[in-house]
Specification:
Low-confidence stretches: 67-75
Strand order of the largest sheet: 2-3-1-4
Largest sheet: 4 strands, antiparallel
Number of strands: 4
Helix content: 25-40%
Number of helices: 3
Radius of gyration: 12 Å
Shape: globular
Strand content: 15-25%
Mean pLDDT: 79
Structural class: alpha+beta
Distance between the termini: 12 Å
């Protein structure tokens, strides 16, 4: 099963919320870079055949107004090769 990184977050707490949301919709997820101390952020991966559905679900979620700048995705659609 090929996994694709669909989003990168600034904080682990953000990726866990997104992961939980996707899993409630039946989409299997994997978190990357959680403990690496990487400046690239914490990644969220899903199986290749679930990318479109996962992005659709995440696109429908709006961050709270007071946290909008800190809660936005850093990048979406980065392929893992």
């Amino acid at each position: 099963m090929r996994l694709i990184t669909i989003a990168t977050f600034n904080f682990a707490s953000q990726v866990y919320l997104a992961k939980s949301l996707l899993e409630t919709q039946g989409i299997v997820c994997r978190i990357t870079n959680e403990h690496s101390g990487s400046s690239e952020g914490v990644g969220l991966q899903v199986p290749e055949d679930a990318v479109e559905a996962a992005l659709g679900i995440l696109d429908g979620v709006e961050p709270p107004a007071e946290q909008e700048d800190d809660s936005r995705l850093v990048s979406v659609g980065t392929l893992l090769c």
